[in-house]
Amino acid sequence: MLTIHTADLLIPGGGRPPLPGGAVLVEGRQIAAVEVYEELAAAHPTARVRRWPGVLTPGLVNPYGPELLEQAYHPDPREDLGSEPLTGEALSAVVMTDARWGASARRGVQRMLAQGTVAVVGPLRRPAVIDAVHRSGLRIEDSFTEGPLTPLLPGMEATFAAFETQELTTCVATVIKGRLLHRRR
Q1: What is the pLDDT of residues 165-181, one digit of tens each?
Q2: What is the DSSP-derived secondary structure letter of residue 157?
Q3: Using the 8-state DSSP alphabet, how is residue 160 labeled?
């Protein structure tokens, strides 16, 4: 199925200039075209359309993968441990099994997706955490790189985020390999 993602401004990355009213046409896991929305919609009238407010951009890299996923516990809302990640002494008080690390990492990854994150910097060492990250679709990078990972260009992986403003503070959607993994309600 073809899907057109559009926003007020498309920042494609890869050295290309911003495109007001821009859109990406996603086919499967890849970007099939990048153009002004009206041109894509006219050329593909049966494509599903997802309109996002603000800015469409390649997404963000979180440089703190080990700290956030292997040195912090993201409590289950059903636990009586609060809603914020536990570290230090508070983490030491929790009995951590591989299953608990995996569940914590899944909740931590959901928080990252809600911030427009499409990759984390490793190295990650816990197999349950690595598995949770891989299953989510996030990439694990060896080092922090400035700028977007994958530019929004035809033939590239359909991985990007939509934000309310150009300050990239409020993420409204995160798409990884063509899958909508986060949508702000």
Answers
A1: 989 999 999 999 999 99
A2: B
A3: E
Q: What is the CATH number of the domain that holds 52?
A: 2.30.40.10
Give the DSSP H/E element, type plus range, for residue 10.
strand 9-10
Residues sharing a CB contact under 8 Å with residue 29, sequence separation 6 or more, in sequence order = 157, 158, 177, 178
Domain membership of residue 79 as a residue range: 61-141
Of 43, 44, 39, 46, the residue nearest 22 (C-alpha): 39
In percent, the amount of the chain with pLDDT more than 90 equals: 91
pTM, full prediction: 0.91
Number of domains in the chain: 2
Q: Do residues 99 and 84 both lie within one domain?
A: yes
Distance of CA 59 to the CA centre of its chain: 6
Reported as a pLDDT band with limits 50, 70 and 90, residue 144 is: confident
